[in-house]
Design a protein that fits this description.
Structural class of chain A: mainly beta
Oligomer: heterodimer
Helix content of chain A: under 10%
Structural class of chain B: alpha+beta
CATH superfamily of chain B: Jelly Rolls
CATH topology of chain B: Jelly Rolls
Largest sheet of chain B: 4 strands, antiparallel
Strand content of chain B: 25-35%
Largest sheet of chain A: 5 strands, mixed
Number of domains of chain A: 1
Largest interface: A-B, 24 and 30 residues
Order of helices and strands of chain A: EEEEE
């Protein structure tokens, strides 16, 4: 399965990102989008899967130091 | 990652068999960019679609027109696109000018570029490729719109 992920960012102005992944993100994961790192706080199915693709909506927040 | 492997992992080419993906791969060219490089510019003619192989790009659109300054505007980044994502696909559908500027935000970004007219010829010659490609473009544009709605909702300006 290929996971097409829509990342949206809370807590700072950021446009979010769309990326394909081999594994589904999990709450608590750290993800790097360009030069910035974020923490996953929620993972939801955005639309039903089709063929080899699953479509996820992932909410992230800046990593607290 | 080979171009065939990348295309196989991109939603735009879902439901195509290995031979059909091979035909599309034969049309593609590799391009490399560094952070800050502008790949396509809003308003310019559009002749290619792009698939992100490595690195990341951002899509930028004018946000607010500035009164009394013709042509001036604030620019807003609306989404970043990573591996497997496509941009420039609107030109494949409507042949219009570029609707946004796309800029590289990651060093060592590699893209595969496919000339629009070559892809159209392939679609015209094999209607299964054409049907799959058009359906997948519709799905990709829908996904991007959902992403933008979710992001705008967080900012209090949901569509």
């Amino acid at each position: 399965m290929i996971y097409k992920v829509s990342y949206v960012i809370v807590g700072e102005p950021h446009p979010g990102a769309i990326v394909n992944l081999d594994e589904a993100p999990k709450v608590g994961d750290h993800v790097q989008l360009g030069s910035e790192t974020f923490e996953v706080v929620e993972v939801l199915e955005l639309v039903p899967p089709r063929g080899d693709f699953a479509f996820l909506h992932v909410t992230c927040q800046p990593v607290s130091e | 990652m080979s171009v065939i492997e990348l295309l196989r992992r991109s939603e735009l080419f879902a439901d195509l068999d290995p031979d059909q993906i091979g035909q599309i791969a034969a049309l593609s060219q590799t391009q490399s960019y560094k952070s800050g490089d502008v790949i396509i510019q809003e308003g310019e003619p559009s002749d290619e679609i792009y698939i992100v192989c490595t690195g990341m790009v951002e899509v930028i659109v004018p946000q607010v027109s500035i009164p009394d300054v013709p042509g001036a505007s604030d620019l807003s980044s609306i989404v970043r696109l990573g591996q497997g994502q496509v941009f420039g696909e609107m030109s494949l559908v409507d042949r219009g000018a570029r609707s946004a500027t796309v800029r590289c935000v990651d060093d060592d970004t590699t893209l595969y570029c496919i000339p629009r007219e070559d892809l159209w010829r392939l679609c015209d010659g094999d209607h299964h490729i054409g049907y799959a490609l058009m359906r997948n473009i519709a799905s990709d544009l829908s996904f991007k719109l959902r992403h933008r709605n979710l992001q705008a909702g967080l900012r209090g300006g949901g569509a």
